[in-house]
Task: structure prediction
Amino acid sequence: MTDAKHWIERYRGQVDAWIERDLKRHSGLGERVAEAMRYSASAGGKRLRPLLVLAAGRYLGVAEDRLVLPALAVEYIHTYSLIHDDLPAMDNDDWRRGRPTNHRVFGEAVAILAGDGLLNEAFAKIAELADPAFESHDVLSALRHLARASGMDGLIAGQAGDLAAEHHNIDLQALEAVHARKTGALFQAACQLPAWLMGNQAAAERLERFAWHFGLAFQIVDDILNVVGDAAVMGKSTGTDAHLDKATYPKLVGLERSWVLARYHQGMARQVLGEDVGESDVLLALLDRAVERKA
Amino acid sequence: MTDAKHWIERYRGQVDAWIERDLKRHSGLGERVAEAMRYSASAGGKRLRPLLVLAAGRYLGVAEDRLVLPALAVEYIHTYSLIHDDLPAMDNDDWRRGRPTNHRVFGEAVAILAGDGLLNEAFAKIAELADPAFESHDVLSALRHLARASGMDGLIAGQAGDLAAEHHNIDLQALEAVHARKTGALFQAACQLPAWLMGNQAAAERLERFAWHFGLAFQIVDDILNVVGDAAVMGKSTGTDAHLDKATYPKLVGLERSWVLARYHQGMARQVLGEDVGESDVLLALLDRAVERKA
Result:
């Protein structure tokens, strides 16, 4: 195994352990909601967004264990968005990460609250950062950027655009605008968080461009796998996009050209990082993995 | 009109105007969600929580116009919680502030996203505070406290407890624990925000106790009005608690004793502020208004 592969396996396990510790047993009024939060947050998955936080930290020379809270924050935002997206009123999904979706286990009311709770916790995590190496001013700036990425001009706009595009013919540009928000915004925030926390504007811009292409490559492959993927391997239903008549790359340009586009963005992302700046090995390994995955 | 009454009328109008300006026309992908956010946030209402932020600021000598963003933050959290609470899977309410509830106008999917958007915006508002009089360190601390108040141990736990208490016999202590979170936590955060932003721990503690009693008095009157109130005056359905068999003060101790308890907490709140500390006139006027209201 290469160093990068080792790193990824190691920190994927670490992220699981951090989440477990952070959302530990909870008693009292919010017990059932806390259980539902834990159910979805600890369901595994690729942990791609928190790994991007840690890998971008490595690239900038920020030790991984100083980025635990930001890593949790992006994973909580991702998980909250999955719980709410899966609701009957939204995508009405029954399976996620190989298990019944949150609302199927806990009911809709608790699932809504569990999503709310995770979004709330995400911001709490950043606000709890008390690392003397990060200035309060930069922590606030990181929080502001994260809120924009997950808010009504970012993730939420993407989800709204995704719903609005069902049963409509939109063009490639419009589809890219949806994906840029639905997936890209949080990918970008994940990659940029360490740079914002360090107050490093130049690095933040470079990582923003890297994440832009990474996010598109990832989303195109996601669309492709929804058509050709194996539901058992993926742990979630496939064919759902076609069923909901969602706008996707395969629907718009076909499978073959979708692959070409995914490879294009993979190449562009590599190019942004260049050759000899920082420890880019893990960021690149995550990129390749995202394009070559089967699930 | 007394000075306090003038102040309240003036700043209630100001809060409306600030919200209007903050959630102004929005185009692009998130347009429909932004419209839904505006629909609920600009529906008026008492604006009690933002007024508490401003009144607590006045009490501590912090000018009102320096607390615009914190005032918006607590109102957005309140509004998000109303939108989600009104959903069919939760309280299934049709009317709110005299208008059809959000999901009845925009559909459930958009209503869920609008709530998410407002929660997100709330934290963004605090993170956007760039007042040189507030140290970044204190702004972060305020944000951390606010996240606790609205999170899985605060508002969300209260809502979960409220749902869990339907059709169950719970005692007064358990009911108080629900109310302390469902209403009290955000009341406390509203009153304490100016103190946190000033890094004034003593004031934060005093205002916490004031808000504790205020919150209970307010919630007891809310329960009472749900039984005896006039739906037309209140702008929302009445009798809904009994219909849902919710745990309330009137159900537990009867109407007469509920009034006694409301008056008791009103008196305790007055006592916390004492006589001659700061400009407590508006805080006290808001308290009296909350107990004597008809809606």
Notes: The longest strand of chain B covers residues 95-96.
